[in-house]
């Protein structure tokens, strides 16, 4: 295939994307597709073509076959899970990253990719007002871009297991002896990571009564009991902004419990961490002085496309001691001089694309002011939606924090019925969940095109479904 | 930021990429940058900007500050590690994927993204002539796109541990009892994955004498001895095309050993797997009838940008039993109907971008014929380079397989000196390694712009360094 056609087709693709974003912004497309399982499979041939096809035709087919079967996460009516929002700057960066096509596993495999990542992670640590020791510039800590908060917590747990074992873990594995603590409110990726790390079921610490937050005294008691039973408490995962209700564990108290016992504290701020761009939303940073690692998904609420999670560690040798590994074909003078960072030793994969260009583009194109404005805009929309819900009879706001509004109808039967009606409605996507055993709906504001008018439209849709119930 | 400027800047970026590819093809750029550690860090401000900047300026700065400090993996003089090659179709797909901005963790979070991935993984399984049971269409197996062969082997090992434990692993972890087997020639990502999975050091099975291939009899003996000692053999990782010498373990015999003992066999074909697109290079497929999982990096040798590893499993429930996990906010009718695939349960991360569009674009744009032609072209260049080396006094080809040529000078001192001279030469990148305790240079053909003229230029550069030694 010749490169000549590429520029023209890429320009066409960019135009189509702009038209697509406009159609989303105008809510001309449904959020959720209507096809039953198998719709896309049926539309695609069973075998790959033998002969090459034109890029222009493949692009056409994308809009014909694939786009109509997507859930549009950038749609103004998308309030599902947590946002995975995006921006033109991020998309442009993905184009450039792909086109340059470098592999940044080590400093020596692309020095500029590695140093850009060091700098951008430091930029973000500073913008979020994280402790200085998380910066590469501190000499001891540093940030690294992972694909997800799941992978971030996995490598943090693995570093914790290695540290807790005083070297034994590398040779003997987890031996059924190490314990990792979280709560029943912790994201599913955490117990999953603990299992993957071979440490069995994560211990669920009780919640403070009447809250969805970890009880630090119960944590201390459980760790001490485990230690007395011959087990080794290795790590605690605290959450700043849980998925179901955006609850925040009492990190300062948890940190003190961990520090007294020499146990690794990982703080998962996948969603709410971005809010710390704004000084008024920095409560979640309290107690990070005790944290060994901290992760935020820039791809959730920072206009940076997925994947882009940033994991910071206070002591990078804890990470590289655990997952660092080399081989004759990876040795090079720069690595051996120990003056450079090799990100392969900070993550699960060996190879990696140039991960930082996207975050660099987004932080520069929006500026910190622009990113703060976006967060404040989304929070104000959540305030509006919460007010609308509260003003309505037969509805209740269960929790409203940052961009998340959790609500329900006056009876569980009506909530369940509303969930079902909304599931079939293609113009709005809210995620059903369970809070304290009762069904709720979650509305997470953060899609880039959601504005006040969209919130009124969304609310009017929800209301009309509720009105039809009675 | 307004979307209006995006289309124009993206078109400009596409033009710049085409110009960049032309400059690479013409070898007008060095492969390796000359700046010492810190060059890029120094060029970047210490803080993120407060005010947003123009995309056009950021794009300019990319070429001014970042591009000159990259190792150009798409350069015709790049023969390092294994290729991570690329194509306009892949770059175009990355643009579209980023612009659509969907998150495909579950079928219900974007049905089209999931079904496209099922179909494309089936396409590739068929194109590589893999066993039919690896296809989604078989009902029992299926493929999933991972970011890397490292992540693929990690989830395969975790599935194996879960299966070997008969359910105990989920609750109790690895307990120091499970063993995973490979060889000293296996890629570093495998012992790394085994450690991360909490199973300690992977067991290094001896090699067949005079080869770099696993000895199946030694494997059987070691597994039986371990079992007698109360340990549980859980998985064997065999390699089709090792990193150092492109050696292939005797998979049929290893498979028989595994099958007799009910042990999971994962086959890592990260590099050489792509060659099976061509019927004449399908030796590596022998014995896959016994394999439980198989992985190939489409991002190595299939014109698909990084990341794109495809992992196939013969029984997808083995994978989803191990890493599947749900939560109230992830429940939905489609998942509960068990008629759909939720790829979150096939991988470490919870969230994921639409991973398959890139492979779909590449397979369609090149066609299977085009992809085969590219493999054959690279293999023929390796033949040419090997001939040139063999015809030269004072050089020796240690191994030549597929696109890889491993060579050395007549003495180790001269090889080491040549490595050092080449490290300082910016026009060619070969990777030094160690084979049987002796230093070698590896030349892996596969960069998209490497042609016969480039091979002659590369060889003349290497020769002139050698001539300067004496």
From TrEMBL, chains A, B:
Keywords: Decarboxylase, Lyase, Pyridoxal phosphate. It comes from the Bacteria. SUPFAM superfamilies: PLP-dependent transferases. Pfam families: Pyridoxal_deC. PANTHER family: GROUP II PYRIDOXAL-5-PHOSPHATE DECARBOXYLASE, MIP05841P. Belongs to the group II decarboxylase family. This is Pyridoxal phosphate-dependent decarboxylase family protein. The lineage of its organism: Bacteria, Bacillati, Actinomycetota, Actinomycetes, Kitasatosporales.
